[in-house]
């Protein structure tokens, strides 16, 4: 059932109100956490300052008190994590509602042409605000987080960003940034729109010609295995364009907000590679060998 503008606005407002309350809850939980940490530090200091000749019963009592403080601190941290994840869920729900409305507007023919400069800003914003995977201890990054590929049976949803291999002439094919319009199960093909609206091109492509872009960023501090290693051959979106080209990873992101540094294949340079370019995680994907080479 289509999501009307009024219903969408109501749903967004409900989640914004919930998010507002959760922000206050987060501050309260953070305050309790800080108190727990201060008590633990005082308890540890008192234990360190205890005289060596103190009787065993007093030492044992101090240890029990410290254990109790550690347990309270752990409980407080877990509760703060729970509230933080609830707040993130509300944010993701708001994003989903707005994206659904945008897709509906496009299907209704209300798609305005975006200039090149505005498009580049939009793509940068989409990369910077891509949800960050915040896993639990021991949890591995899921498919389509950073460099983790999609599952074999994955089907991209309408509105998802993809790299699409399209024919631009009788002798040339390019990997372009596109958006999924629909999945055609009977044909096993995607219908996608070129993200560059000035082109106004729609393509029907087999699944092997479409590579889903990451749905989440990976944090190098917790999910380094979800990033491409230095020296990996990838496809990356060339800066200020909407086309993907072969590149080599030169430097990994040092934080969740940082881009990769890549070297694009370029025969005009003596060593065959361009100077380092910075490309966001969202626009660096596994290469399809033999396809999408720069001309």
UniProtKB/TrEMBL annotation:
<dbReference type="GO" id="GO:0140672">
    <property type="term" value="C:ATAC complex"/>
</dbReference>
<dbReference type="InterPro" id="IPR047288">
    <property type="entry name" value="Tudor_SGF29_rpt1"/>
</dbReference>
<dbReference type="InterPro" id="IPR037802">
    <property type="entry name" value="SGF29"/>
</dbReference>
<keyword id="KW-0804">Transcription</keyword>
<keyword id="KW-0539">Nucleus</keyword>
<dbReference type="InterPro" id="IPR010750">
    <property type="entry name" value="SGF29_tudor-like_dom"/>
</dbReference>
<dbReference type="GO" id="GO:0005634">
    <property type="term" value="C:nucleus"/>
</dbReference>
<dbReference type="GO" id="GO:0000124">
    <property type="term" value="C:SAGA complex"/>
</dbReference>
<protein>
    <recommendedName>
        <fullName>SGF29 C-terminal domain-containing protein</fullName>
    </recommendedName>
</protein>
<keyword id="KW-0805">Transcription regulation</keyword>
<feature type="domain" description="SGF29 C-terminal">
    <location>
        <begin position="152"/>
        <end position="293"/>
    </location>
</feature>
<dbReference type="Pfam" id="PF07039">
    <property type="entry name" value="SGF29_Tudor"/>
</dbReference>
<keyword id="KW-0175">Coiled coil</keyword>
<dbReference type="InterPro" id="IPR047287">
    <property type="entry name" value="Tudor_SGF29_rpt2"/>
</dbReference>
């Amino acid at each position: 059932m289509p999501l009307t503008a009024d219903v969408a606005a109501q749903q967004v407002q409900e989640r914004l109100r919930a998010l507002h309350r959760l922000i206050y809850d987060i501050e309260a939980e953070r305050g309790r956490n800080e108190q727990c940490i201060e008590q633990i530090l005082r308890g540890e200091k008192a234990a360190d300052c205890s005289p060596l000749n103190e009787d065993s019963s007093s030492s044992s009592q101090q240890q029990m008190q410290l254990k109790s403080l550690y347990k309270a601190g752990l409980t407080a941290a877990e509760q703060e994590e729970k509230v933080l994840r609830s707040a993130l869920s509300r944010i993701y729900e708001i994003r989903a509602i707005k994206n659904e409305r945008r897709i509906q507007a496009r299907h209704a023919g209300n798609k305005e042409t975006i200039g090149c400069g505005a498009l580049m800003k939009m793509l940068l914003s989409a990369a910077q605000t891509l949800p960050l995977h915040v896993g639990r201890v021991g949890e591995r990054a899921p498919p389509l987080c950073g460099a983790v590929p999609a599952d074999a049976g994955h089907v991209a949803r309408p509105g998802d960003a993809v790299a699409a291999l399209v024919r631009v002439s009788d002798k040339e094919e390019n990997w372009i940034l596109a958006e999924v319009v629909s999945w055609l199960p009977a044909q096993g093909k995607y219908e996608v729109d070129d993200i560059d609206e000035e082109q106004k091109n729609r393509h029907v492509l087999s699944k092997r010609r479409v590579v889903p872009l990451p749905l989440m960023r990976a944090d190098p501090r917790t999910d380094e295995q979800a990033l491409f290693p230095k020296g990996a051959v990838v496809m990356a979106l060339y800066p200020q364009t909407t086309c993907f080209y072969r590149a080599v990873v030169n430097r990994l992101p040092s934080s969740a907000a940082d881009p990769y540094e890549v070297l694009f294949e370029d025969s005009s340079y003596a060593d065959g590679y361009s100077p380092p370019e910075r490309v966001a995680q969202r626009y660096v994907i596994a290469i399809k060998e033999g396809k999408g080479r720069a001309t």
